[in-house]
């Protein structure tokens, strides 16, 4: 929908401002669609929608498709001028044609009425209240995994002991272990149990969660916070974050858990924060 709003903005350019009535209709259409787009983006964060909200969302999408088809047909319709012209120049030529202006004006009127009705329907049924209410119940499932009772997972005790034995074998080289498996088998709970069991064995510890679309700077800042350090400014680049963590860990024995890491390329960056200091 953002591309559609951009196209409507182009149609409100200087040449189009000569046609005051059409300018007003397109401006209203653009404003309505901008608001609807913001609401659609909010709905993307809600896992399950009730039937009413889902139907409204579908109507907005259908209206957007209709409007984009109309705008594209107008912009790319054939002209008598065979010379190749740019995108903006072509739009200007269209509006010099009275017939084209009349046709697009009628279509814009119809589309504006359709969008306004969808917008009114949104207000009538108070969908904002539902969206606001729903936004408070979107819970990261990894949070509950941190507090899952380990006794409810069959065989976890043996895995905990095995990991602890491997981590504490006396070898002071940097160790990296991956816990892999399908969702829901207890990977986070296993890592958390090891983390708790090794309390007091390291100079500093951290446990942080990533996501399928990792924000590397935010993750590195969270590691610093876990160590009790200050969060770095967002203006600092990733390399500065990595250097600060390395500096802090240089003479320390440390234990860090990176939970829910999906992207190997993200790990290639994150691992640069952890120095081989033989502790």
Low-confidence stretches: 79-84, 130-139
Kindly name the structural category.
mainly alpha
Measured between the Cα atoms of the first and last residue, the distance is 54 Å
- Helices, by number, come to 12
The order of strands across the largest sheet is: 1-2
Q: What fraction of the residues are assigned to beta strands by DSSP?
A: under 5%
Notes on the structure:
The chain is mainly alpha-helical. The chain has 2 domains: 2-135, no CATH class; 141-273, no CATH class. The chain is 59% helix and 4% strand. It is built from 12 helices and 2 strands; from the N terminus they run αααααααααβααβα. It has helices at 2-11, 20-43, 51-76, 87-95, 98-124, 127-135, 141-146, 156-167, 187-197, 216-226, 238-249, 264-270; strands at 204-209, 254-259. Strands 1-2 form a two-stranded parallel sheet. α1 runs antiparallel to α2 (20-43), α2 (20-43) packs parallel to α5 and α3 (51-76) runs antiparallel to α5. The longest helix has 27 residues, at 98-124. The protein is elongated and about 85 Å long. InterPro entries: NB-ARC (IPR002182), P-loop_NTPase (IPR027417), RX-like_CC (IPR038005), Rx_N (IPR041118). Residues 1-83 form the Disease resistance N-terminal domain. This is NB-ARC domain-containing protein. Residues 19-46, 101-128 form a coiled coil.
